[in-house]
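Milestone 3.1: sequence recovery, worked example.
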């Protein structure tokens, strides 16, 4: 058998190995953001209705991506812990069952989505021309859903084995294909008909199809950390139940984040276009820090999982703390630059004085807390690598739906009264924070969730491996006559 590639996080210096794991994930996340922006840029050349149609699809698309992310979290946890335990065969079996589960779930979602596509669009609020453009877009996106799930399955399988570079290169090539095809399919360049929003979806379909085919080929090859074997594609209900049990909290986590983002955007919209535009630009800056922190969190999941599989929980904890400190320092440096030049940072995107002024307030209130939330995201990765996805889910729900949304409602939409004593006469002061109350709610949520995440991780409830002791999973279910077919 050929030697398999991948980073072994169970030995050696932690920091350089974390960097080796994390930088391809960071680049992949940023490229994903870039090619989503490319879609919006070219769609914007069609009409404002087309832009509105694609924008309306984001919450729905994120729900599907969140479902795939649940499967991703489970696969990383199980594969990394089997690899850490030096049970490569068990890791390969998880890969096969991940592929089966990804196909089954995505096909079911695509069928339901296509059947209910018109009521779904009406529920979201699409009307008239926006409805037509959104329908053309979403019909193709539903067809691409199995490809999206398969790519997530491929990426998480390799990541659990410690190989993040291979998936990154596929993201690079896939994003390149999407960006190149966009103007041809959307605007009808060359021999292609002008397809508008449907063209954006078709370009995405082609790019994901390429990435999926290449990913399956790489898994069959087996030299990149794990191997997909045809014999492992027979259903193993025990492994699938484990994937679902570990994965569903991560899916609920993604849904909670999506709905909270929609709620907060709705709150901001009530304060007018300047506040909304400032929020949109600020979130773009925040999304860069989230991309970095999320990628390091994924690398941390691999490191924690491998070390728990190797029965070295103390080293697993060190991986998480080193990753958290390094990420917070990096995000802190970015924040210092933004705080030094807040107006210039906003002016990159807009030249409206009102928007820039509101954006400066946004950055001054919220940016100092970004490093704290980056730390939360890394520690959530540590929980997920341990297979404790419920803790990561609870942290997300608390940070958004307890520490953020209710606080925003109080600070932004009610007058806050505080008692104070003047020189002689006790009285009460009313503070109407307006949209700044939303910015302070974000900041409070970041700080509170950081304190909770650190305290919870220090409890050490995550230190037990989620892979079973004894014979490798699935061995008892494999008839003796089949062993030669699926084992090297």
């Amino acid at each position: 058998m050929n030697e398999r590639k991948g980073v072994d996080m169970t030995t050696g210096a932690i920091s350089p190995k974390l960097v080796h794991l994390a930088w391809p994930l960071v680049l992949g996340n940023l490229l994903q953001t870039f090619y989503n922006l490319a879609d919006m840029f070219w769609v914007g050349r069609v009409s404002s209705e087309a832009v509105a149609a694609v924008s309306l699809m984001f919450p729905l698309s994120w729900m599907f991506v969140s479902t795939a992310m649940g499967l991703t979290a489970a696969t990383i946890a199980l594969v990394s812990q089997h690899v850490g335990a030096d049970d490569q065969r068990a890791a390969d079996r998880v890969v096969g069952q991940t592929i089966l589960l990804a196909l089954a779930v995505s096909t079911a979602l695509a069928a339901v989505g296509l059947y209910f596509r018109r009521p779904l669009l009406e529920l979201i609020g699409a009307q008239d021309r926006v409805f037509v453009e959104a329908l053309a877009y979403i019909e193709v996106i539903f067809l691409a859903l199995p490809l999206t799930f398969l790519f997530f399955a491929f990426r998480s399988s390799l990541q659990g084995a410690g190989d993040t570079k291979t998936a990154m290169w596929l993201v690079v090539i896939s994003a390149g294909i999407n960006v190149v095809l966009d103007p041809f399919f959307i605007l009808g360049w060359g021999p292609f008909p002008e397809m508008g929003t449907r063209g954006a979806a078709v370009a995405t379909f082609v790019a994901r199809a390429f990435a999926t085919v290449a990913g399956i080929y790489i898994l069959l090859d087996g030299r990149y950390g794990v191997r997909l074997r045809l014999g492992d594609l027979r259903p193993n209900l025990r492994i699938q139940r484990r994937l679902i049990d570990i994965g569903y909290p991560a899916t609920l986590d993604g849904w909670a984040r999506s709905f909270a983002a929609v709620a907060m955007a709705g709150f901001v919209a009530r304060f007018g276009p300047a506040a909304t535009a400032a929020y949109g630009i600020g979130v773009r800056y925040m999304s860069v820090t989230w991309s970095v922190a999320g990628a390091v969190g994924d690398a941390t999941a691999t490191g924690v999982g491998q070390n728990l599989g190797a029965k070295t929980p103390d080293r697993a904890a060190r991986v998480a703390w080193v990753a958290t400190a390094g990420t917070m320092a990096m995000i802190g440096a970015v924040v210092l630059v933004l705080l030094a030049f807040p107006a210039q940072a906003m002016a990159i995107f807009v030249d409206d004085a009102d928007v820039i002024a509101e954006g400066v307030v946004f950055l001054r209130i919220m940016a100092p807390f970004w490093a704290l939330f980056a730390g939360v995201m890394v520690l959530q990765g540590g929980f997920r690598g341990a297979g404790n996805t419920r803790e990561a889910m609870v942290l997300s729900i608390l940070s958004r739906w307890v520490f953020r949304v209710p606080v925003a409602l109080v600070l932004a939409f009610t007058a806050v009264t505080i008692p104070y004593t003047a020189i002689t006469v006790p009285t009460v002061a009313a503070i109407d924070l307006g949209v700044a109350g939303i910015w302070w709610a974000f900041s409070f949520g970041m700080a509170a969730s950081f304190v909770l995440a650190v305290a919870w991780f220090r409890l050490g409830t995550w230190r037990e491996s989620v892979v079973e002791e004894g014979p490798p999973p699935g061995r008892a279910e494999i008839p003796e006559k089949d062993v030669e077919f699926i084992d090297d």
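Strands lie at 416-421, 426-431. Residues 42 and 68 are 27 Å apart (CA to CA).
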